[in-house]
Amino acid sequence: MRRLSTALVVVLLASAVGGCFPGEEPDVDGAAQFDRFPIYWLGETFEGHGLEHISELGATNPGVMLVYGTCDAGFGYEARCNAPLQIQVMPLCTHLDAVARNQVWRTRKVRGAPVGTIDGAPVLFTRRMQLKVYRGEGSDRGMPRRAFEALRSLNSVEPVIAAGGPIPPPPPGVLEGERFCSD
Fold it and tell me: What is the mean pLDDT of the chain?
């Protein structure tokens, strides 16, 4: 499977989280029918912030971004803002060596799954996916942890996670680099 470079993923995400999505309804039904990989979400609202956007799902997309809440982009050329909460759901193996390099995940867990960090964003490692939470306007430092606590499956692709239920961690040895990671 071809891997996207970290720089390309960052550019794609910046275009998704940097602005607003006027008039566009998130395609929850389409995401619920998506069958290539598990998608985890917080429901249609989280802490008063509505689900504003689900990035387009397709054969070439390596993951999905869910955006909760809106923000004030201001005025001027290339005005941007960061919505209160964005969740990036990517395959576990996507640039895993960089994401797991900071081994704080060895001592931090949420619902049984390890939590690391990269570039200041917390990363939850599940059996098949990694979830990064980015916070923006109208959020506080505790919001990412509360989001991880509230995660549940949007589609029916295994492993299915129930609200408040355990989150299956990656296979033993994968985060440590002792075992090959495969999507």
Answer: 85
Identify the CA nearest to 123 among candidates 161, 158, 142, 96.
Answer: 96
Q: Provide the residue count of the chain.
A: 183
Q: How many whole angstroms separate alpha carbon 84 and alpha carbon 106?
A: 28
Q: What is d(CA 87, CA 13) in angstroms, rounded to the nearest whole number? A: 10
Q: Which residue has the higher pLDDT, 92 or 5?
A: 92
Query: Helix or strand or coil: residue 8?
Result: helix
Residue 14, CA distances (Å) to 11, 80, 161, 170 in order = 5, 10, 28, 27
* CA 100 remoteness from chain centre: 15
- CB contact at 8 A, 117 and 102: yes
Q: Mean per-residue pLDDT for 50-74?
A: 86
The conformation of residue 131, written as its DSSP 8-state character, comes to E
DSSP assignment of 49-116, as one string?
Answer: EEEEEEPPP-TT-S-EEEEES-----SSTT-----SEEEEEEETTTTHHHHTSSGGGGT-EETTEEEE
Measure the CA–CA gap between 167 and 151, rounded to whole angstroms. 9
